[in-house]
Specification:
Elements: H1 14-25, H2 32-37, E1 47-51, E2 71-76, H3 82-91, E3 95-100, E4 114-120, H4 130-136, E5 137-148, H5 154-160, H6 168-173, H7 181-186, E6 189-197, E7 200-203, H8 208-222, H9 233-247, E8 250-253, E9 256-264
């Protein structure tokens, strides 16, 4: 399954704005990307693979940590992510390359090519690629994966008018989630370290504009492709405002998980 259209394709500034909203409203003040890299041999990662790389969100914390000659290869299905990803790779101190192609069950790289693979909120789109990640990692290489929990964004579903059982994200997390990801990874790595990342986003009445921005951004990930959602944009705004007025705050579930995988076992 391929990711939904990237909202950034119509508003290049939106990803930065969403990152800022999430950061300022998070109860967990630790940057999940930095938490994911703790204990990983980044200083020895000369060749890095970013799967479903998007605009390079996951590689920014590599700045100052990777070898000066490191290469960072991003693979993503959206050609509009090429320029921002290459800029992020350069800012991280690496030599970037970008491959625009769908990620399904085959990676077009030789065996034992990479020292580090990163999959940030992406493996649920293409879980069939996990055996290939083990194949293209060198002995001693690591995979760092970040994913959502199955209950993530439940309140946003209610605001959108989407029943949980019809959520597009719920269908995706059946592929790879905080709850089932370790089992899928242990089939291809000798060591899988699970790092829970508990979090929630809190919005208060003065934050309604930011809450609505988050709702609009996450809608493609939550709304089923067929059938849409029963609420119009005006109704969604009314529901969000009423919820903030009646409860004084809206708490958005965002428990995630980090998996650090070592000992790749290619088959």
């Amino acid at each position: 399954m391929e990711p939904p259209p990237d909202p950034a394709s119509t508003d290049p500034a939106l990803p930065e704005r969403i990152s800022d909203i999430i950061r300022r409203h998070s109860g967990n003040r630790v940057d999940i990307r930095r938490a994911a890299l703790e204990g990983v041999a980044v200083a020895r990662a000369h060749r890095i693979l970013d799967l479903g790389c998007g605009r390079g969100f996951a590689i920014r914390p590599l700045q100052g940590l990777i070898p000066p000659e490191a290469t960072i290869t991003g693979v993503d299905g959206n050609p509009e992510n090429r320029v921002p990803f290459l800029a992020a790779a350069a800012a991280a101190g690496g030599r970037g390359s970008f491959l625009c192609r769908p990620l399904r069950s085959r990676l077009e790289f030789p065996d034992r090519t990479f020292d580090l693979a990163i999959a940030s909120y992406s493996l649920y789109f293409f879980p069939g690629v996990i055996p290939e990640v083990a194949r293209v990692l060198r002995p001693g290489g690591s995979l760092v994966a970040i994913t959502h929990s199955e209950a993530a964004f439940s309140t946003l579903l209610w605001v959108l008018g989407v029943p949980p059982e019809r959520s597009a994200l719920q269908a995706l997390t059946r592929n790879f989630s905080a709850e089932n990801g370790a089992a899928a990874l242990r089939e291809h790595f000798t060591e899988v370290e699970e790092r829970p990342y508990p979090n929630a986003l809190t919005f208060r009445p003065g934050d309604v504009a930011e809450l609505l921005t988050l709702v609009r951004d996450k809608a493609p990930l939550l709304v089923p492709r067929e059938g849409g959602h029963p609420r119009t944009p005006a109704e969604i705004e009314e529901v969000a405002r009423d919820l903030l007025r009646s409860t004084g705050e809206v708490v958005i579930e965002k428990d995630d998980a980090i998996f650090v995988c070592r000992g790749p076992q290619p088959r």
